Amino acid sequence: MVCGILFAFSWEASCRPLRVGVAWRQPLYVMHCTASYRSTFASLVLSTRDSHLTAGFPFFLKDANVRTTEAADKQGLAMALFVAVTGGAVMAFTVVVFGLLGISLSYYLSTLGYGSSETEIDKLIFAADAIAAFGFGASSIALFARVAGGIYTKAADIGADLVGKVEMDIPEDDPRNPAVIADNVGDNVGDVAGMGADLFESYVGCIIAAVTLANGDVALIMLPFYVAGAGIISSVVGYFAMGVNDDADQKQLMWALHKGNLVSSVLVVGITAAIIAQLFEGREMDGWKILGCIILGLVAGALIGKVTEYFTSYSYAPVQSITNAAASGPASVIIQGLGIGMISCVFPVLIIVAATLSCNALGGGYGVAISAVGMLSTLGVTLAADAFGPIADNAGKSMLSPKSQCEQFVGPSLTCCCFRCF
After folding, report:
1. What's the rounded Cα separation, in Å, for the pair 155 and 149?
2. What's the rounded Cα separation, in Å, for the pair 183 and 386?
3. Which of 129, 229, 296, 387 is the S-S candidate for 88 at Cβ 3.0 to 4.6 Å?
4. 289 vs 184: CA distance, rounded Å
5. What's the CA gap between 308 and 89, in Å, rounded?
6. Distance between CA 280 and CA 285 in Å, rounded?
7. How far apart are CA 307 and CA 88, in angstroms?
8. What is the rounded distance in angstroms from the CA atom of residue 309 to the CA atom of residue 319?
9. For 422, which DSSP code?
10. Which of the residue ranges 5-9, 261-265, 355-359, 415-419 has the most confident prediction, judged by mean pLDDT?
11. Nearest to 309 by CA among 195, 183, 416
12. CA dist list (Å): 252 to 40, 87, 240, 241
């Protein structure tokens, strides 16, 4: 944070003639560091920590991992999925609400304090320059939370496996292995706190980019805020659309999670179309081109998700080929796994390139930026499904009894589903 503040001061010294908006850079940097940290830490506490730390919150927001285990054991798969997804939704909606509220407040504050010599368009442009510090603050926290949290996660996982299976010859995730606790904590640090900070930065970053490229056009400046707000409302509806029966299989579980994303995406497109019809009155063609960019962003995000599922699910050929390679020893597994990992990167890159070129043809640089806003507009429901993963995984490792429904459902169903989802 100290380095970022010093950078902001040096940026101020080297910028164009001093403006009021420049004075907001240091406070905005600190504000976004604080917002990013508080949103991710609050999500981690509400999703996984002990009851005495979450006193005063509704019962379904406390100890989501333990409650998922209890729900699966006593009430079945449907309630277990609801509890796990609700725990993930806590983190997801905390991130998007803090992000949209922070960037909206920052942009408003950055337009204040100017004299009569600046026009309204100048104020909007200067404010867009100032809120770049807000995004830089989010990136600073994301760097430490995502990278450091991810390293801790993998170190704890590998350490637990080496000590348990190699040195002590006990099963994976056996409660007799103290390192399993570090492994469980690492899942939450990397996938709840780290992922939240990372996507918090991406979420506000794409809004900042769209506002900056709007170049003072009021309609273009307002649109990314409206799209993000529409995405939050749509994500709430999508969250309630996710549900299964107690006798659901793996495909039905995956469909339950995909259904939430599909519902929220369709709602975002509908609400955005209505907003564009009002904002771009008199220049409808420009508005519909921008709507096309938003749709392209949503479609690109969905396609990348399907490609990821194909390359990481045990139901498809890539993972099965790695399993078959294990027959000839660990060297073959390493080579095959590395090869599959490299191939899996090709298709997302092609999708991103195609979407970028298409959006640039439709709306130029602003079209590319607003497509990213569209892609992340449904972050509330997609991030809920992502944070659902470590909650369900921890629940599967906390089986109450060998013959409980927790073993039947949370382990082989919810946990596997969470790894297939994202």
Report:
1. 10
2. 18
3. 387
4. 46
5. 21
6. 8
7. 23
8. 10
9. -
10. 355-359
11. 416
12. 30, 20, 16, 13
Quote the CA–CA distance of 387 and 61 in Å, as a whole number: 13
Q: Which residue is it, tokens 């080496």?
A: 162
**Dist. CA 356–CA 421, nearest whole Å:** 25
**Structure tokens given for 114:** 């100017």
Amino acid occupying residue 40? T
CA distance 208 to 199: 14
HSE at residue 405, side-chain half, CA atoms within 13 A, is 16
User: Which residues lie below 8 Å from residue 58, measured CB to CB, with a gap of 6+?
Assistant: none
CB of 29 within 8 A of CB of 4? yes
Among 13-27, 66-80, 212-226, name the one with the lowest average pLDDT: 13-27
147: left (phi over 0), alpha (psi -120 to 50) or beta: alpha
Cβ atoms 180, 160 nearer than 8 A: yes
Rounded-to-integer distance, Cα 39 and Cα 196, Å: 8
Decide: 397 and 172 in contact? Cβ < 8 Å: no
The encoded tokens of residue 91 equal 């983190």
In tens, the pLDDT along 99-143 reads: 888 888 888 888 877 667 777 787 888 888 878 776 777 777 777
Question: Could you give the C-alpha distances from 60 to 70, 90, 94, 406, in angstroms and in order?
Answer: 12, 10, 15, 18
Find the DSSP H helices in 280-316.
284-312
Predicted confidence (pLDDT) per residue in 33-79, tens digit: 777 777 777 767 766 654 444 444 444 445 777 777 777 777 777 78
CA–CA gap between residue 117 and residue 3 (Å, rounded): 34
